[in-house]
Specification:
alpha+beta; three-stranded antiparallel sheet; 53% helix; elongated
């Protein structure tokens, strides 16, 4: 088995890698938090969160806080597992520990 088999194409992009990294260490993050931490435009963040949502790696919760809409994201169990496998594969590749 190749050491790159568990490298996940969904996390190839640095923005999706960043989104997942933030969500793995936080219970959830809202749109503005992700946008500010990753220094993204609204459209750029929206397209990448949609790709992760489509893969069932993150879940989206829309609510109102006061009168303002708020969108927040959290990892799914599938997303956590896939991301951990991806990171482990990168570590094996970097440190040559098959």
């Amino acid at each position: 088995m190749s050491i790159i088999n568990n490298i996940n194409k969904a996390f190839d992009n640095r923005i999706r890698l960043g989104i997942m990294s933030i969500l793995m260490v936080n219970e959830y993050a809202d749109f503005n938090m992700l946008k500010n931490l990753l220094d993204l435009t609204d459209g750029n963040l929206a397209s990448h969160t949609k790709a992760l949502e489509t893969a069932n790696y993150i879940k989206v919760e829309k609510q109102f806080i006061g009168r303002k809409p708020n969108t927040r994201y959290a990892t799914t169990k599938l997303g956590e597992l896939a991301f951990k496998k991806h990171i482990e594969a990168l570590e094996k590749l970097l440190y040559n520990n098959p």
